């Protein structure tokens, strides 16, 4: 039996600064935990996603229980 790939959902919100100029400002939210992290660069966004997808140990995180 094949295993299902690990899937997680994130909400990314980005906005312009007060002068209407584009800048990396925003937040990313984990849909399963509600955890919100402010981001100021593409690197911060990728770091957050990598951390959440691999868990603290560096190995794939266990999928949450619940509806599938």
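Sequence proposed for the structure above (68 residues):
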């Amino acid at each position: 039996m094949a295993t299902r790939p690990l899937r997680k959902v994130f909400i990314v919100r980005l906005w312009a600064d007060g002068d209407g100029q584009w800048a990396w400002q925003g937040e990313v939210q984990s849909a399963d935990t509600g955890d919100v992290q402010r981001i100021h660069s593409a690197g911060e966004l990728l770091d957050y996603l990598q951390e959440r997808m691999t868990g603290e140990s560096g190995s794939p995180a266990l999928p949450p229980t619940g509806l599938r």
